[in-house]
Amino acid sequence: MRMESPVTESTASKGTILIVDDERVILDLTSIVLRNRGYTIYTAGDAISGMRELEEYQPQLVLLDYMMPVVDGLTALKEIRQRFPDTYVIVFTGKGNEEIAVELMKAGASDYILKPFNNQDLIERIENVLRIRAVELKNRELLEERERLLSEIEEWNRQLEARVLEKTEALQRAQQEIVQSEKLASLGYLSAGMAHEIRNPLNSITLFAQLLKSGLDDPERLEYIDKILKEVDRIDDIMRKLLDASKRPRFQLSEVRIDKVIEATLEVFKPQTTLYHIAVRREFTRIPPPFQADSAEIEQIFTNLFLNAIHEMKEGGTLTVELDHDDRDILIRVADTGKGIPKEIVPKIFDPFFSTKSSGSGLGLAVVLRIVKTYNGRIGVEEGDRPGTTFVIRLPLVGS
Predict the structure, then answer these.
(1) Are strands 317-325 and 329-335 parallel, antiparallel or unpaired?
(2) N or C, which end of the chain has less CB nearby within 10 Å?
(3) How confident is the model at residue 10 (pLDDT cuts 50, 70, 90)?
């Protein structure tokens, strides 16, 4: 059974109240009193009907009789507080002992009123409970808002920390690139002067050695002179590499297909990969379009990287070349399954003359870096779980 007050929530209702009582007189009298005070009233003659009213209207307050047939008030109170936590409950009871009062308050009642009750006392109790409800709901809303704001602040802090870390890493990379550029610039000034000063005496040594060779018949002495000439050639080769690492030699731009350059360079190294039982894997996801470059310079990149990889896998392994591109860059990965580069020396590997090989000049990767930077590209060692070393190169498709 349901009775609605003529005063609705859309007008000037002070609140919504459901009265659940099996005594018709209590329902009618209480409804009249509360309607006259401006409340919207719903009524039910038992707890089961009251639950249906609760589901439909979800009133702010329930006036609930303690003694009812089928479902008693205490059972109904517990269900209301569990299912409708925003609905507060005042219990009517004809039994005024302290034990019942404690039981009701533990079960979640906001107050209890002894029958028969005084109308003014009823109104004051209702207004007090509704005030407490408003304060508690507001507090809960503020707490939820606080938690939401704290969560947002925490998320902002995480994003800020991530951005700071990203910017810090970018700054460190930029500083490393500046240092590398300064090293190459210094090397350029040094090597240009050295090339002139060293090659002149080398030419004289070569000339005098050849003159001595032409007047000798002793095989042992001829062998010594050949060794002198070989060492002169080796010094000259170092000087050439030094110049290549520090400045760009003569070049000729043309449309270069980087996949073709990779294939041609791999073919050159086929005898070595076969000799050392090195498997070669090509993972060409997307073939980049041709771009403007000097084919010999691009070939030098892969020559040096493949040489290093093969040196690390003389007991066998896998050389993997990955090729892909997006709208802006060509992406290349050259990976080996060797012993890898210790993390602490990774920042030094592009330094001129730095080498972990006993016979290396330490100029190969410096040359690679100079060429990649010539085309406004980037090169680095990729961190990950993959065994060995993986070099990652990005070259812009347009502009150099």
Answers:
(1) antiparallel
(2) N
(3) very low
**In Å, what is the CA distance from 363 to each residue of 34, 244, 281, 313, 381?**
95, 9, 27, 20, 17
Dihedral angle, C-alpha 108, 114, 115, 117, nearest 10 °: -110
Say how far apart CA 6 and CA 34 lie, in whole Å: 11
Task: Identify the H or E element spanning 320.
Answer: strand 317-325
Tokens matching residue 193? 């002067």
Q: How many residues can be counted in the chain? A: 400
Per-residue pLDDT tens over the stretch 64-89: 999 888 898 899 999 999 999 999 99
Domains and CATH numbers, the chain: 16-117 (3.40.50.2300), 252-396 (3.30.565.10)
Q: What is the distance between the alpha carbons of residues 85 and 130, in angstroms, rounded to a whole number?
A: 14
Tokens of 343: 């993390």
Confidence of residue 49 (pLDDT cuts 50, 70, 90): very high
